[in-house]
Amino acid sequence: MDDRGGSFVAVRRISQGLERENSCHSTSAEVVAGSAAWLSRGLSCVCAQRRESDARPSFDLTPSEEECLQRLQNRIDIAYDSSIPEHQEALRALWNAVFPEEELQGLISEQWKEMGWQGKDPSTDFRGGGFISLENLLFFARHFPKSFKDLLWKQEGDRSAWEYPFAVAGVNITFMLIQMLDLEAENESAFDLLYCIAFKLMDRQWLAMCASYMDFNTVMKATRHQLEREFLLEDITRLEELPSYSLLTL
């Protein structure tokens, strides 16, 4: 977090399996190179260097950055466990943030379908994203409630008859970001903020493509490519400067 309140994120590695079906899409090497430039502009305490035996840049982190990165990695490694009280409370907190006037009947309830879970037990949908995907949803609901509810209730644009299930889409976005990025952040919540941006961007892509439920994977690929392009933009030093950040409303 800098003195302007910005959330810094640097892309350390883009996974090698990037889709290349469109020639205008950036290659993984281009994304890494662009990310190194972002590092040199935006994170003066992090140096991008190349090892002689490795064409990819490596990064020297300060101890505090290493600690923050490790905390984020620890979050990613935690599976959702319905027997853990902290996980139960986070799930209840998500319900209360979204439906403050409706009492939740139980952690296993038909009510969860109102939020876009596949069944009455949300824990069965966390396999891909783990506990951090629940934390991401809760962060989104608390920090950008209008954008969150606009997406939940599909209040923007001409929607299809078969829409994506909101909560399940949220877990998929967490999983996409985990696969796509290794993050170095001065602010641990940067991953959560990037999640909010990606979710809003995904819905914008959904509307632009006039998508329906069967198009969800295609929309996710388009979302990923758009994020990669934004990471390559010049003069981007913090998440709040990404073009897609402007989609969020408090």
From TrEMBL:
<protein>
    <recommendedName>
        <fullName>ELMO domain-containing protein</fullName>
    </recommendedName>
</protein>
<feature type="domain" description="ELMO">
    <location>
        <begin position="86"/>
        <end position="231"/>
    </location>
</feature>
<dbReference type="Pfam" id="PF04727">
    <property type="entry name" value="ELMO_CED12"/>
</dbReference>
<dbReference type="InterPro" id="IPR050868">
    <property type="entry name" value="ELMO_domain-containing"/>
</dbReference>
<dbReference type="InterPro" id="IPR006816">
    <property type="entry name" value="ELMO_dom"/>
</dbReference>
